[in-house]
Amino acid sequence: MENKNNVTEFILLGLTQDKTTAKVCFLLFLVLYAIIIFGNLLIIITIKTSERLDSPMYFFLSYLSFLDISYSTVTAPKLIYDLLVGKKTIPFVGCIAQLFMGHFFGCTEIFLLTVMAYDRCVAIHKPLHYTNVMNKHVCGCLVTASWVGGFVHSLVQALLTIQLPFCGPNEIDHYFCDVHPLLKLACTNTYVISVLVVTNSGLISLTCFVVLAVSYVIIMVSLRTYSSKGRLRALSTCSSHVTVVILFFGPCIFIYMRPSTTFSADKMISVFYTIITPVLNPLIYTLRNEEVKNAIKKLWSRKVKRSET
């Protein structure tokens, strides 16, 4: 244990060692990160300024967009910068902070997606009681609970990792600091901690996924009493959420619901849920939602009129 503080920084091996590939990835991820910021900010501004989008569904969607920006910002800027430098380093404290923030925003997003499924379930299964059940106070409490749950989860992950002794080597075969790659570098037996990590992360992902599945089973059963037009409208709204859930939960379950081992495909799968999914979310929720598209058009037309005057 006296060698515990030997490692003051970690070396990230990154996505690729090939300089040509790194330059291509730099341009690609720079564009994608710009789309993440612009697309999700556009959704937040549109929802906040549109009176027609004053409903629980869009209230949760605005927070989902904020989480997408925050979650991708934990890793994307560092990844983009590291693609242009030779030696990719991160201080020990910065590594733990990145681990904490990544799990904080990621777990909060998982809880929020589960809350959004519950919201749709109530809206379709009990439409007459929807406004009473999902009032502003309840919506605020659900969002707060998601943030608190994400914080507790990430705090546990960080505390389990930070107390490990790191004597060297200090090379992380990843483009950001995460629990599994760090456990491989610890100079002690990490079996118990790896079980706790998998239990913590895996159970959250699995439990939320089961709740989501049950919610949509109830939704499918309830839709049998709807008219064809009402059924299509409800399915259009729910399909957007289902797509986002599959894109986000699939990679997370693959990464965190297994023993503390790493595979060569982990880095590309991590790119999918840290960058690709936050890019796709604004497109999914705007292209498949007429109310959001109309609100964006009105927002744009108002800005055009102001610029003309």
Explain this structure to me?
This protein is mainly α. The protein has one domain: Rhopdopsin 7-helix transmembrane proteins, CATH 1.20.1070. Helix content is 75%, strand content 3%. It is built from ten helices and three strands, in the order E-H-H-E-H-H-H-E-H-H-H-H-H. Strands 2-1-3 form a three-stranded mixed sheet. Helix 2 runs antiparallel to helix 9 and helix 3 runs parallel beside helix 7. The chain is globular and about 65 Å long. The model has no long low-confidence stretch (mean pLDDT 86).
Helical percentage: over 70%
Strand content: under 5%
Report how far the terminal alpha carbons are from each other: 70 Å
Gyration radius, rounded: 21 Å
What pattern of helices and strands is seen along the backbone? EHHEHHHEHHHHH
Question: Major sheet, described briefly?
Answer: 3 strands, mixed
Mean pLDDT: 86
**Full CATH superfamily name:** Rhodopsin 7-helix transmembrane proteins
Number of domains: 1
Examine the secondary-structure arrangement and name the CATH architecture: Up-down Bundle
- Which CATH class is shown? Mainly Alpha
Structural shape? globular
Structural class: mainly alpha
Subcellular location: Cell membrane
Organism: Aythya fuligula
InterPro entries: GPCR_Rhodpsn, GPCR_Rhodpsn_7TM, Olfact_rcpt, Olfactory_Receptors
GO molecular function: G protein-coupled receptor activity; olfactory receptor activity
